[in-house]
Amino acid sequence: MADLTELNLAEARDGLAKKEFSAVELTEAHMARVSASSALNAYVLETPEKALEMAAESDKKIAAGEARPLEGLPIGVKDLFCTKGVRTTACSNILGDFTPPYESTVTQNLWGDGAVMLGKLNNDEFAMGSSNETSRFGPVVNPWKANGTELVPGGSSGGSSAAVAARLGIAATATDTGGSIRQPAAFTGTVGLKPTYGRCSRWGIVAFASSLDQAGPITHTVRDAAMMLTSMASFDKRDTTSIERDVPDYEAALTGDIKGLRVGIPQEYRVDNMPAEIENLWQQGIDWLKAAGAEIVDVSLPHTKYALPAYYIIAPAEASSNLARYDGVRYGARQNGVDIDDMYAQTRAAGFGDEVKRRVMIGTYALSAGYYDAYYVKALQVRRLIAEDFTKAYQKCDVLLTPTTPSAAFPIGKNVEDPLEMYLNDVFTVTVNLAGLPGISVPAGLDSDGLPLGLQLIGKAFGEEELLRTAGVLEEAAGFDAQPQDWWSA
Amino acid sequence: MSVDENMVRRIANLARIGVSDDDVPGLAKELSAILGFVEQLSELDTDGVKPLTSAVEDKIRGRDDVVTDGGYAEDVLANAPEKDDEYFAVPKVVE
């Protein structure tokens, strides 16, 4: 039998349907790779027994002719998603050995469609980071290397991106608050889709910045992303910002036809010091879409440069409020103090890592009396200007094309000492979260060091079908089929 | 806006994060750098712009004010660091 971990989601589904192999065989093949991959540190918890049990159930369904849309397909789950009876920590010490007595809506949707859980994936602590170096379980190593140097897999969904790139799961769940799906996808040669805000339920996902957080998949292909989104998306009464709207079959949108589509090129994304390779790849993307029959339109998003500063007030403000719940009373690791206030302070001092503390403190400051209007309200006003930029641009175009990141994956440790340098990673992705729009990163080429680079497409709110269709055309034109050389399997 | 050491202590107290004296100067520097970066927002004239709190501007859905969930204290308490019968236990608050 061929190596079953070489298959993408759609191929594995079709192989299972034709009974070329069983769900248990498919799952076992991935489990073997997972258990040999500790050098990557992508998984923080493996759930082999659960995986085999779910796969055996899938084989029964397939035999009975009752296969569900993702029947028997083994995937990894970012440790931000609560999984019933399976430790969930958001990769923070403060959650201790928290074991949720409930399942997040998104993962429940996936299991309900027959997907198989391989385990929980590493991420930056509370999803705060762009390199997966803030995790309590230590950094994830990118399967891709340049000149022998170990690189970050991006963040915060670095476990998800590394796992898919290294074939430790056919797909993975992830979350994106400022770029945390798209940036790691770009760094690992995978596809990362952040849906429209409100498309996937946030219920049961550990909250970072609630007005920006959105779940989505990291996959090998655009088709796989469409399959995953069709399952992950739903209306959920338990999330007050969930949108009541039918979920289409996103895979059916991949017609390959974008004739007449207007693709906007935002001039403000030509930032200073952008590497020539990224600039060239962007131009290449423009040429590909033009050749496929799209019309290229220059557009302006004039407030782009203010997106990161606005984000670094809004996200920390929401985080400081959301993370107030970690007080050592109801769950997680408690530190004893001389009185209850001291218990809170000691618990939070010991439980939160440096980056989380920084952001909670920035947020607390921005929300405190005397600074609220100058920082928080100001940032929300700028957020509206950014959202209006997109509304205006979409009068002239249907989707936008940009680079995903200003660079390829960087070495582990490079930006750890300088939070601001780290924040700049999200310069092209963060606007999308502020405006609540869908965005996707598609692997489009390799740089001179042989590292993957991604192009980002941004859609209209709930324009995932058009977005995925365009991404499919971009993917086809790019023909990206490079894979990292396996140096990690033990 | 630069954050001095007193301000760091004040914010840390508001955020209920214990900081040691050794941590304070470093935090003051880091928080000042981040706020310095954010300072560029003041270049923009936002007079009269309505703050945007959420990308979803639909009215928040209402629901009937009835109990829809609950009745499983054991689950709720399952992850408690300390519990006493059906209660979370904390250090004595009232003398």
Helix/strand layout:
The complex is a heterodimer of chains A (490) and B (95).
Chain A: H1 9-17, H2 23-35, E1 43-46, H3 48-63, E2 74-78, H4 105-112, E3 116-121, H5 158-165, E4 171-176, H6 182-188, E5 191-194, E6 214-219, H7 222-232, E7 262-266, H8 276-291, E8 295-299, H9 307-322, H10 340-351, H11 354-367, H12 372-393, E9 399-403, H13 419-423, H14 430-435, E10 439-446, E11 452-458, H15 464-478
Parallel strand pairs in A: 2-3, 2-4, 7-8, 7-9
Antiparallel strand pairs in A: 1-3, 4-6, 5-6, 5-10, 9-11, 10-11
Chain B: H1 5-14, H2 23-38, H3 73-77, E1 83-84, E2 87-88
Antiparallel strand pairs in B: 1-2
Helix pairs in contact in B: 1-2
Task: Note down, in words, how this protein is organized.
Chain A is an alpha/beta fold. Chain A has a domain at 8-258 and 439-478: Amidase signature (AS) enzymes, CATH 3.90.1300.10. In chain A, 36% of the residues lie in helices and 12% in strands. Chain A has 15 helices and eleven strands. Chain A has helices at residues 9-17, 23-35, 48-63, 105-112, 158-165, 182-188, 222-232, 276-291, 307-322, 340-351, 354-367, 372-393, 419-423, 430-435, 464-478; strands at 43-46, 74-78, 116-121, 171-176, 191-194, 214-219, 262-266, 295-299, 399-403, 439-446, 452-458. Chain A has an eleven-stranded mixed beta sheet, sandwiched between helices. In chain A, α7 (222-232) runs antiparallel to α15 (464-478). The longest helix of chain A has 22 residues, at 372-393. Chain A is globular. The two termini of chain A are 22 Å apart. In chain B, α1 packs across α2. The two termini of chain B are 42 Å apart. In chain B, a hairpin with a 2-residue loop joins β1 (83-84) and β2 (87-88). In chain B, strands 1-2 form a two-stranded antiparallel ribbon. Helices cover 33% and strands 4% of the residues of chain B. By secondary structure, chain B is mainly alpha-helical. Chain B has a domain at 5-43.
